[in-house]
């Protein structure tokens, strides 16, 4: 470090070392030699990730705007590449651009794109096209009873895993005889094994005890029979997890009378749609549950129930929880766990403590999250210009104050933010953020 | 809330706009979040969705033990049935709840045009359940099937 910069730094630090400064300690982090438990996220460029953002229709654009605002406020190292998809266009250029952007970035956050039923059958659902092209084979929804949300049933904790690329959504229909339509439901061994394996792996990773396969194999003996057989085959490789199956109509009945009996549920596409929507309704509705679509190489996050919310668009009444929690899932996927848990805690605190309900207080809700996030982080930035390039050998000084009256003070979070800034520093410039 | 004190030196009075905004947010809005099945009246749908949704709705009203159903065909041909299982574990023990089959019979009477009889039996059945004095085990009572049926018959006699 140059003399000038050292003087500037020590000058800035002088009041902090004075006897009247609050009790605290200095943590010196030398980028090269210090062995930290912190693992850097798989950053793309300059420590920042680029994520495709597809606002969609209805309430999508306003929710996307609020996610961006929240990320900007929290200084999350994520940049959004916004790709608009016009659902009224019959050409597939828009959705192909979106798919290309997701291929480039690997991750996306999307709102639902409306599918107009009046368009000809050759017009494929944009959402479906996106999922099948990118082979996002697993749609995962974690429905949990949220504290502070009053529902008829309590203590619900169900993970629904839905096969996302085949089944009744194959869009293969024909009308050989006028007035008689045949619709093909495709069930393949490969995809059934894949989704079953995904379900059991997820159950094992999350410490879950039971996987229930939902089917209608008594009627669709070949199709759902194959699915069930594949689930049983995969189950034999996971002896610690109980596997059972339930017919879909009984499942929905059990869900509305005794939902606590379910743990992880795996099912083909259509039953997954129905069951996951029922589960979302049980925990409080479409505004609360996030959804994730995972593939081998890509991940797309959205609201769990995939509604456009056309009737409440642009009225400032939509519940942003689902989209904000989806953005937390996105951050977890990017291994930015600190930011994810910070935002998640803020959201849950807002729902619980301030009892803000979406109908009237949407702006206050998002403002509430921002205010909750602002409280523990009091800091000031010092930008130092150095004549000699320092790059990876720069030293950061972080002043961390123990503040017992703060509800949550997360040292690792503060440390991770400081290190993110270190990555951002250019060769001749270093920004030091001092926390008070 | 302790969090507010971080921002002001004197914890007891709101020192700035930030704190007063936070205090305004404390206003509790007690809107229950319930999903509302009562918004629906008649639902018509294809076979599979009907299978799923009918069982879902049965779960909402108390289960298959109280749900009647009918299968209507052309030329007035119809079969009315209860949709619960055969329950072999309680068969022959006078423990079953006859409500589902009874209300299915009421549907049958309506189909046949015997609305007066249908109304009487239905009212008697609903009143017996509402009273909660004579209920079978699945509805939370201790009575036998025959006792429950006897109670309904008694009500009908009292109605005449």
Distinctive features:
heterodimer, A: 436 residues, Isopropylmalate Dehydrogenase, 10-stranded mixed β-sheet, two-stranded antiparallel ribbon, B: 160 residues, two-stranded antiparallel sheet, disordered N terminus, IsoCit/isopropylmalate_DH_CS (chain A)
Short summary:
The complex is a heterodimer of chains A (about 425) and B (about 160). Chain A has about 425 residues and is an alpha/beta fold.
Considering residues with a beta carbon less than 8 A from a beta carbon on another chain, report the largest interface and each chain's count. A-B, 42 and 33 residues
User: What is the molecular shape of chain A?
Assistant: globular
Widest beta sheet: strand line-up of chain B: 1-2
Can you count the helices of chain B? 5
The CATH architecture of the domain at 44-114 and 124-172 and 183-307 and 317-358 in chain A is 3-Layer(aba) Sandwich
Instruction: Give the full name of the CATH homologous superfamily of the domain at 44-114 and 124-172 and 183-307 and 317-358 in chain A.
Output: Isopropylmalate Dehydrogenase
Mean pLDDT of chain B: 80
According to DSSP, the number of beta strands of chain B is: 2
Q: Beta fraction of the residues of chain A?
A: 15-25%
Nearest-angstrom radius of gyration of chain A?
25 Å
Shape of chain B: globular
Main beta-sheet annotation of chain B: 2 strands, antiparallel
Whole-number average pLDDT of chain A?
78
- The CATH topology of the domain at 44-114 and 124-172 and 183-307 and 317-358 in chain A turns out to be Isopropylmalate Dehydrogenase
Number of helices of chain A: 12
pLDDT < 50 stretches of chain B: 1-34
Low-confidence stretches of chain A: 1-41, 357-363, 374-380, 386-423
User: N-to-C SSE series of chain B?
Assistant: HHEEHHH
Catalytic activity (chain B): D-threo-isocitrate + NAD(+) = 2-oxoglutarate + CO2 + NADH
Family (chain B): Belongs to the isocitrate and isopropylmalate dehydrogenases family.
GO molecular function, one term (chain B): magnesium ion binding
Organism (chain B): Oreochromis niloticus
């Amino acid at each position: 470090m140059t003399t000038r910069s050292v003087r500037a730094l020590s000058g800035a630090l002088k009041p902090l070392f004075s006897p009247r400064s609050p009790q605290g300690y200095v943590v010196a982090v030398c980028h090269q030699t210090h062995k930290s438990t912190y693992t850097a996220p798989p950053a793309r460029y300059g420590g920042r990730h680029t994520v495709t953002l597809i606002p969609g229709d209805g309430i999508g654009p306003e929710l996307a705007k609020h996610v961006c605002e929240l990320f900007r406020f929290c200084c999350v190292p994520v940049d959004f590449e916004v790709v608009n998809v016009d659902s009224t266009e019959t050409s597939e250029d828009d959705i192909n651009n979106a798919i290309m952007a997701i291929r480039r970035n690997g991750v996306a956050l999307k709102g639902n794109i409306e599918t107009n039923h009046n368009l000809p059958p050759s017009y494929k659902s944009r959402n479906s096209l996106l999922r099948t092209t990118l082979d996002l084979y697993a749609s995962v929804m974690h429905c949990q009873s949220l504290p502070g949300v009053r529902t008829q049933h309590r203590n619900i904790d169900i993970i629904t895993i839905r096969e996302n690329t085949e089944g009744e959504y194959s869009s293969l229909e024909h009308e050989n005889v006028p007035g008689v339509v045949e619709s093909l439901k495709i069930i393949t061994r490969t995809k059934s094994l894949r989704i079953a394996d995904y379900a059991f792996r997820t159950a094992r990773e999350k410490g879950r005890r039971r996987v229930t396969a939902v089917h209608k194999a008594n009627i669709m003996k070949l199709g759902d029979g194959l699915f069930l057989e594949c689930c049983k085959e995969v189950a034999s490789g996971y002896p610690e997890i109980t596997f059972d199956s339930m017919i879909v109509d009984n499942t929905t009945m059990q869900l509305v009378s005794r939902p606590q009996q379910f743990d992880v549920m795996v099912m083909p596409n259509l039953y997954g749609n129905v069951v996951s929507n029922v589960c979302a309704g049980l925990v409080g509705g479409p505004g609360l549950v996030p959804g994730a679509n995972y593939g081998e190489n890509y991940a797309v996050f959205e609201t769990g129930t995939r509604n456009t919310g056309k009737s409440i668009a642009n009225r400032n009444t939509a519940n942003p929880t689902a989209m904000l929690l989806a953005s937390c899932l996105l951050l977890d996927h990017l291994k930015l766990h600190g930011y994810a848990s910070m935002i998640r805690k803020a959201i849950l605190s807002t729902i619980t403590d301030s009892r803000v309900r979406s109908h009237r207080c949407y702006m206050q809700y998002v403002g509430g999250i921002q205010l909750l996030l602002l409280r523990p982080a009091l800091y000031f930035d010092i930008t130092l210009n150095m004549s000699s390039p320092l790059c990876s050998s720069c030293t950061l000084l972080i002043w961390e104050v123990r503040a017992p009256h703060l509800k949550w003070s997360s040292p690792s979070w503060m440390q991770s933010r400081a290190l993110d800034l270190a990555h951002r520093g250019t060769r001749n410039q270093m920004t030091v953020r001092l926390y008070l | 809330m302790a969090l507010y004190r971080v921002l002001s030196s004197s914890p007891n009075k709101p020192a700035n706009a930030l704190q007063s905004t936070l205090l305004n947010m404390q206003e509790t809005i007690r809107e229950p979040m319930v999903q509302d099945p009562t918004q629906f009246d008649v639902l018509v749908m294809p076979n599979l969705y009907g299978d799923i949704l009918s069982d879902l709705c049965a779960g909402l009203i108390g289960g298959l033990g109280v749900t009647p159903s009918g299968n209507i065909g052309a030329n007035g041909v119809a079969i009315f049935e209860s949709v619960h299982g055969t329950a072999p574990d309680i068969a022959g023990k006078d423990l079953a709840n006859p409500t589902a089959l009874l209300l299915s019979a009421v549907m049958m009477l309506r189909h046949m045009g015997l609305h007066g009889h249908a109304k009487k039996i239905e009212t008697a059945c609903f009143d017996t359940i509402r009273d909660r004095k004579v209920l079978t085990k699945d509805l939370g009572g201790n009575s036998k099937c025959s006792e429950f049926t006897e109670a309904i018959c008694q009500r009908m006699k009292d109605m005449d």
